[in-house]
Specification:
Elements (H helix, E strand, L loop, with lengths): L1 H32 L4 E6 L10 H10 L14 H9 L4 E8 L4 E8 L2 E7 L2 E6 L3 E4 L10 E4 L11 E2 L5 H15 L1 H6 E8 L2 E6 L5 E5 L4 H15 L11 E3 L5
Parallel strand pairs: 1-3, 4-7, 7-9, 11-12
Antiparallel strand pairs: 2-3, 4-5, 5-6, 6-8, 9-10, 10-11
């Protein structure tokens, strides 16, 4: 009979609702009394860079007076802990959570540099999001280096997004993104030497030539011309003499 099916369905639904209410209340009570019994810290991209180690993160937490082991989970401010760690310039993002067994899990993601700048005004990295942060005393990231008279106006030790008035650094960031994404030029470029904002030279990884780019404007076009020049003149079966200074804009 249809009405019997309705009664059975309603009864089962009531039992499920009662179970959910009771189990939810039990979990909430358990979480209220649960204390942190361990901390699991992992630097998720440590194979790429080693700016910071789990031991360093544990030391930061201790120095900042953040209570962990033995403290009740309900009293822990996970969001505040994440923000404290994110203030470190080498850390891009932190994810923290507590599992049901009382373990505080901390997952840290470091910044990924794509250019190192060394100039009279200061030395720093630019990461893949356009964030500037100081060099590290414990780790060197092997990325292209820009040296010479790099025109910057901010003080040494600056950390943060590229300032809006730093046009040359914005161009440098765009160029570094291009290198990071292009396998050919990534393998070719080891250093950029800046004579001034309108005279930038590429020092290739192989050979003794210097490649004069001029400004960093239209670098895509300039590098396409240069790549075509290499394809025409640099062949393994024929010995050619390449001038010590190649001016891209003079290539036909």
């Amino acid at each position: 009979m249809p009405w019997k099916n309705i009664i059975v369905t309603a009864f089962i639904s009531a039992l499920l609702i009662a179970y959910l209410v009771v189990s939810t209340g039990f979990v909430e009570m358990r979480q209220h009394d649960l204390a942190c019994n361990a901390v699991d810290i992992r630097v998720c991209d440590s194979l790429t860079n080693s700016f910071i180690r789990p031991a360093d993160i544990a030391a930061i937490i201790e120095q900042d007076g953040v209570k962990t082991i033995g403290d009740k989970i309900i009293q822990m401010n996970i969001y505040q802990l994440e923000q404290r760690l994110n203030k470190r310039s080498v850390i891009k993002n932190t994810e923290a959570y507590v599992s049901i067994d009382g373990v505080l899990h901390i997952r840290v993601y470091q910044r990924r540099p794509i250019m190192r700048v060394q100039s009279p005004g200061g030395s720093f990295y630019i990461d893949d999001s356009g964030y500037i942060f100081p060099l590290s005393g414990v780790h060197t990231s092997y990325v292209p280096v820009m040296t010479g008279n790099v025109p910057i106006s901010f003080a040494g030790g600056y950390r943060g997004e590229i300032p809006a008035n730093e046009k040359f650094l914005q161009q440098t960031y765009d160029f570094a993104l291009f290198l990071d994404d292009d396998k050919f030029w990534q393998s070719q470029v080891t250093q950029l030497y800046v004579k001034n904002a309108t005279n930038v030279e590429i020092i290739p990884r192989v050979g003794e030539q210097r490649i004069c780019l001029g400004t960093l404007d239209n670098y895509n076009y300039k590098l396409r011309k240069l790549q075509a020049f290499f394809a025409r003149h640099v062949r393994p079966v024929k010995k050619v003499i390449i001038p010590s200074l190649i001016c891209v804009m003079e290539i036909k």
